[in-house]
Specification:
elongated; alpha+beta; 618 residues; 6-stranded antiparallel sheet; 8-stranded antiparallel sheet; single chain; 2 domains; Beta-galactosidase, Chain A, domain 5; 29% helix
């Protein structure tokens, strides 16, 4: 039986349903553990770390779901396997010994859940061990105190390891814990937001790492470290007021940034609030966000036919993965099951599932450099952004952080090659080339500003080419204006949203390519994507992107405007429309926003002729 079908049919209404979901996700792994049970082999794709470490990662990550599942009384056939694996993996004399670690070792990441297990379920992973086995486990974990940890959310891994050892009465490094916790506090910005280490990006690592681990600590240490516990909880309450805007009323969240193969870890923050007894919004709202997110994910083809969670986003797709995404990496998504550790009479479980509260149609968020807009009764969420950059340059960095807008409906695309628009898949981007079909896009901003009505950025694809960009939401449209100063001849291509060419096994029907003058749109029953040139003579064209470039759909069209710039200064402007299925019959395509271009000023007006922004062209 295809295990994907099992979890897809789980109604996810009750605590019992959530417990069953953990088993439905984890039980298919049983045949793939090694002889000594300390490693798990579920794929042959590579990663930065060596193969033995990748297989240990695959062994460890399901524990993020299995530990709270067991803490709340859930039963799993896998615990016999895990106890044997822990015995052998920490035994220096066993052939499956996990080994001596090194600085910034991937094994440090996986140690964290073992520390969490010691804190939560010692009766499963500690008390059954004999004295020699306990020493082996403690010694193996204690290595983390003697090596350099990445100066980021990784510091929490060492905290969780030491906390677990403390909870079972073993030696631990109290001074190291305090040092790491103090350093983590230095990453706190304000308004509930952290940065993840010294890097500039503000992505899902803030909720599903910085806050998630902080809330675990707050719960487990609320009596012994009362002030820090209160501080973590208060920060999470404040953060929730922004983060709720990232979620749609249908359960989806805006895909943005790296590590998106962790999928339903998107809602892990909300489960961590429940675990820590933090009612940042009403319990029914928290419950609804978690359950709707899980239901949506389990309806997507994210599992293989033998029930293994794959690398990818809305479908299996290695192309968008990070260099550290091994076959077992996606099981970090199980962090969302943290509320299973709570008793059945906890307010989270007793509450009736509620819809999202009434939210503003626009939320300006300075820390992630975003304006988030909501359309179609909250089902379509768009994040307009500029100025984010992951300094360590993860794969497809520009696509994951510096597109003009990100959408929960359309997702975003990553390049599949470096030649031409089809391989580049430049949705929601302005791509520039010197006529050789090799394109450059915005990847790091020289300057940026997030204002009430627009986002501004200045970027240089070459040293002698400067682009100033203004993106102005005019829902359901948005306007983009570019002032380009170039010392070289450039070919330009500006893409709208990438829209699915087909849905599941349906034969494309009712589709319509609308080509009118300097505008083009692709309209399907499941949505509309279009772009209109508002200045100049750019040519509209549908780009048939290479397969598997988009996160949401394997085959997409990208409505695009193409043109050429000679050396000098130029003004480019366009309006972009993206509508989901509930909006596809609207007349918005016939009512683009108005842009007035004069000699030394450009004005963008909304549909009531109110000026949203006036740009000086000098």
């Amino acid at each position: 039986m295809n295990r994907f079908n099992e979890v897809a049919n789980n109604p996810l209404k009750s605590r019992k349903d959530m417990q069953e979901a953990v088993n439905q996700i984890c039980n298919p792994l049983a045949p793939f553990y090694s002889d000594g049970k300390a490693r798990l082999h579920i794929g042959n794709t590579g990663t930065y770390c060596i193969e033995s470490t990748a297989r240990m990662e695959a062994f460890a990550r399901p524990l993020w779901g299995l530990v709270p599942h067991a803490a709340g009384g859930g039963e799993s056939e896998l615990w016999r396997i895990y106890l044997e694996g822990i015995r052998n993996g920490t035994n220096p004399e066993h052939e499956e010994y996990w080994g001596i670690i090194a600085d910034k070792d991937q094994l440090m990441v996986e140690m964290a859940v073992l520390g969490f297990a010691l804190s939560m379920i010692p009766e499963k992973v500690w008390y059954p061990l004999n004295e020699g086995e306990k020493k082996n486990l403690a010694d193996w974990l204690l290595q983390i105190n003697h090596y350099v940890v990445v100066d980021s959310n990784w510091l929490f891994f060492r905290v969780l390891v030491n906390l677990g050892l403390k909870k079972v009465g073993e030696a631990y490094n109290r001074e190291m814990m305090e040092k790491d916790l103090n350093r983590l506090d230095e990453f706190y910005l304000s308004d509930g937001w952290y940065q993840d280490g010294i890097s500039e990006q503000r992505d899902y690592y803030i909720p599903f790492a910085m806050h998630f681990y902080g809330l675990i600590y707050a719960k487990l240490m609320e009596k012994e470290d009362k002030q820090r516990s209160i501080r973590y909880k208060e920060r999470a309450v404040t953060f929730a007021k922004d983060f709720i805007y990232w979620f749609s009323s249908d359960g989806t969240s805006v895909p943005f940034g790296r590590s998106l193969t962790y999928r339903f870890a998107q809602s892990g923050f909300w489960g961590a609030l429940a675990f820590a007894d933090v009612e940042a919004v009403p319990w029914g709202v928290i419950k609804g966000i978690v359950l709707r997110n899980l239901r949506w994910w389990f309806k997507q083809p994210i599992f293989s036919t033998d029930g293994i969670l794959t690398i990818g986003y809305a479908f299996p797709n290695l192309h968008m993965a990070e260099g550290y995404n091994a076959p077992g990496s996606p099981y970090w998504a199980l962090k969302t099951f943290l509320p299973l550790a709570l008793p059945e009479d906890h307010p989270f479980w007793m509450a009736e599932e509620l819809e999202l509260p009434e939210l503003e149609t626009k939320s300006v968020q300075q820390h992630p450099h975003m304006i988030l807009c909501r359309q179609e009764e909250g089902r379509h969420v768009l994040a307009y952004t500029a100025g984010q950059h992951a300094a360590f340059e993860p794969v497809h960095c520009a696509a994951k952080y510096e597109k003009f807008v990100y959408s929960n409906v359309f997702g975003f695309s990553v390049p599949r090659g470096d030649f031409g628009l089809e391989q580049g898949a430049y949705d929601s981007m302005l791509a520039l080339s010197e006529g050789d079909q090799l394109y450059r896009v915005r990847r790091k901003c020289e300057a940026y500003a997030v204002e009430e009505n627009y986002i501004y950025s200045k970027w240089k694809p070459w040293k002698d080419v400067e682009v100033q960009t203004w993106v102005v939401p005019v829902m359901p449209w948005h306007v983009r204006i570019h002032l380009v100063k170039t010392n070289r001849t450039l070919d330009t291509a500006e893409g709208g949203f990438a829209i699915a060419k087909e849905k599941e096994m349906t034969v494309p029907g009712g589709s319509d390519i609308i080509l009118e003058g300097h505008s083009i749109a692709a309209r399907f029953p499941w949505g509309t994507s279009g772009i209109v040139d508002l200045a100049g003579e750019r040519r509209p064209e549908i780009i048939r992107a290479e397969p598997n470039t988009n996160l949401m759909a394997p085959r997409t069209y990208i409505p695009t405007l193409k043109g050429r710039l000679e050396p000098g200064a130029h003004v480019m402007a366009c309006a972009v429309l993206g509508e989901g299925s509930g909006q596809s019959e609207s007349n918005a395509w016939n009512k683009p926003p108005r842009v007035i271009i004069e000699k030394d000023e450009i004005r963008v007006e909304d549909f009531g002729n109110e000026i949203l922004i006036a740009i000086k062209c000098s």
